[in-house]
Input
Amino acid sequence: MKAASWKEYSVIATGDGYKLERWGNIVLLRPDPQVIWPAAKDLDGYPSLAAKYVRRGGGGYWEKKRELPEEWNISYGDLRFKVKPMGFKHTGLFPEQAVNWDEMRRLIAGAGREISVLNLFAYTGGATVACAAAGASVCHVDAAKNMVERAGENLRLSGLGNANVRFIVDDCKKFVQREIRRGRKYDAVVMDPPSYGRGPNGEMWKLEGELFPLVRLCMGVLSENPLFFLINSYTTGLQPQVLENILRLNFGARGETEAYEVGLTTEEGIVLPCGCSGIWRAKRDTQWTN
Output
């Protein structure tokens, strides 16, 4: 699926391992491992290029080409987000996720009841803001305090400062385990787990070995009338069918399951792949117990 409704973001051109992007009125050049074709134009010489992320060793740095603000805001419909060039080429926002934001909003708005959402590995809160805008209550969980703070800023930027959102700085797996013991339930779960990582006590996280048991664990916090369960992944080599299989093995026939590549259509007219997602949607008025 392609995020095609952006007005303030676009991929101008791609090539030679880079993508040239317009974020509002700021143009950035960032590495992208999926871009393995030659550039049709000189991306470094683009007239209004503000900065390029240059890889060096295991990291890199932003090479400024002209005046670059420390941060600025862009909008997606009625949602508003901060953009900030950060380490490891990130900007604090993944525009391709708009396709998932739209789908979650559609499901929540069409539910005809109050919906509670658990957002795990929630980063700067794109999904949190989208779900809150649709009227859901949201529990936003991420282990990085600075990212959770940025999520709160994005919520307020979108005029949702009074929305029912809890921000939690915690290890996602341990938080879910505590929620199960507390008996807390949610109507929907969203997760965007990393490929690799380490827990607070040095525990190694590797998606291939942890994803299925994490999804199975999260089944324990679903309400008796769940709405959806969405998994997103940027892990290289992980196919959409894998996410669909994980969801089918956990949910069986209690709804419909779909998995898809997430991408962006560039101004050149090609589709740039940006990871994959899988979603389980409940049949209307699904009733179940775990």
Remarks:
- The chain has two domains: 9-86, 95-281.
